[in-house]
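Q: What would this chain look like folded?
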Amino acid sequence: MDALSVLRDYTARKELGNVHRVGDEFRFGNDYRFPCSTETGYRSKLGFFYTLDSLVFFVKSSNLKHTEYMQQARALKLQIVTYTDKKPLLDYLEGKVSTSDAIELLPPAGALHPSKRPRSDQDQPVDACLLIELVRSLERPVRDRETILLCPNKSFEGILSTLGRRERIEQQSQQQSQQQSQNSQRREPPSSSTDKFVKVEPDLKSAAAPSMEKRPPPPPPSSQQTLARSSSKAKIEGPPIILVPNASQTLLNTFNAKEFLEDGVYVLADAKKSAAAKKPETLPIYRKIGREIPVKYEVRDRPSALSSKDWERVVAVFVLGKEWQFKDWPFKDHVEIFNKILGVYLRFEDDSMESVKVVMQWNVKIISLSKHKRHQDRTAVLEFWDKLDAFVRARRLPIVF
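A: My prediction, written as structure tokens:
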């Protein structure tokens, strides 16, 4: 018997467990043995004969999905039974049909094979569908530099905003340097502007003195111009104030605001609360992100303790999304609040949108954090400072930012 008939006999009798590979040959019980590379008489619709090892693997893997079978056969470097050959070949091997048009008699083992196919075979057209199927079976997943850049669930808005901010700073620095060269005689000393609103700590100011002697530090975007325009306003004493919610169920409060706003690292409020000995009433922070000289701010969570002078220093508030947060505030409604104070809502990016339905009705900036990717915290903090800078510039507040 030929190899194909023997394999069909063992498959139909469900005795494939007695078919074993030993070395370079397959043994069918104690009755038959054939070399693994023996060509069977079953011709593919693509024109080639299937080898014995490819058919043995195919019939033993008939319970797998065709894609899984293709992957395993490719890994073993075996011929792959095409999808169009799969059903008729399996029906023949399992004995459901007695014969098939794809079966051809092969020459004896010792017969000479022709060196070339007859010209009539070469000129026969190949079915386009079968050719496409063969190409797909040999395809490999490939990545290029464009597909690698396609990152789902990734946002590069922070990087773009950083680059855009740097370009704006360079343009404004060039414009200001030109204006300073034209109006050098009328220019006021830098100390008068910094004393207007923000107190720089003596030790920090002295540490930066050597660099200030070499060259004047590049001023923040239009801060000197802002002060010049607002010189007619009353002098405001003390650092700017940022309000945070006085609540435990919030992402940011006085326990973790310092690490977040100063260093760009978010720490859970509960973790900082357990480590802190006492809750601070006034939390001083120094803005170092995007500044050569640190600028002092105050973080508070008790609006009821603020005086009228203190309210003039409030520049931003992290909202909780609850109406009670604004109780007894010296403003008539949300429109007036967020027209004078920058409103910011901090949330985790995978939280439901139900939590932001209320704040979306207010003039509030929404900033999202990742729960696990701490390297993205700095981007969120940079976004906050950028929005605060734009808010102060738009309203011409007497503040160095």
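The two ends are 92 Å apart (CA to CA).
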